[in-house]
Amino acid sequence: MEIERESSEQKKLVLVFFGSPSKSGTTAKLLNEFLNPLKENMRIETVNAYERNIAPCIACNVCAGEERCSQPDFDGIDALIREADVIVVATPVYNLSLPAPLKAIADRTQRYFAARFSLGIRNPVKKHKQAAALITCGSKDCEGAEIIARQLKLMFSVMNTSLTGTAVWTGTDFEAGSETFETARNSARELALAIACEL
Ligand SMILES: Cc1cc2nc3c(=O)[nH]c(=O)nc-3n(C[C@H](O)[C@H](O)[C@H](O)COP(=O)(O)O)c2cc1C
């Protein structure tokens, strides 16, 4: 019993930020393709943005003076971020950006930006992480996915996190979406395997 617990605690932690309101929609489908090769050997924790309902950043600037956030609702997520080996952001594009509940989570990482640039802490998050972005777009172009990737890179730059790759499923709002899924699922699987190899 003790040995089993020890080995499961040693599993690498994959922290998923899930940004879709639909648990069985296109984003969930793409996420499953990514997680399937990892499930057996890794611990997976999911933060469902629509269920967690994290408050938006209120720009109170407390984090510019002390290494903390004035709003405690992000503390559990902060602990998971610090512990994680891999961060996955799985999200649909909404108005060329992140859906509002996930954008709120993204903005709450301001505490790491302030720790780096106001408090001068070189690595506010000690453990290095790889990251994957899994993005679904109703549109046949990937403009929204490119914008989200830029947002994530900025956010990750103060979280000791490298965006290893993205898997984008375009055209989900069209019939042709079933064809583009094949490409997206292959990218997601390859990305998962590439990340697993690096761990
Ligand atoms: C409020 C809203 C805004 C959207 N804005 C965009 C957009 O700017 N660009 C785009 O490609 N798709 C957009 N879409 C389409 C979704 O990204 C697409 O349907 C996605 O596959 C939904 O993911 P889900 O099945 O996980 O809910 C939007 C959808 C909604 C509901």
From TrEMBL:
Entry protein name: Flavodoxin family protein
Gene3D superfamilies, per database record: 3.40.50.360
Keywords on record: Flavoprotein, FMN
InterPro entries xrefs: Flavoprotein-like_sf, FMN_Rdtase-like_dom, ISF_SsuE-like
Lineage: Bacteria, Bacillati, Bacillota, Clostridia, Eubacteriales
SUPFAM superfamilies attached to this UniProt entry: Flavoproteins
PANTHER family recorded: NAD(P)H-DEPENDENT FMN-CONTAINING OXIDOREDUCTASE YWQN-RELATED
One Pfam family this sequence matches: FMN_red
Residue ranges constituting the NADPH-dependent FMN reductase-like domain according to the UniProt record: 14-166
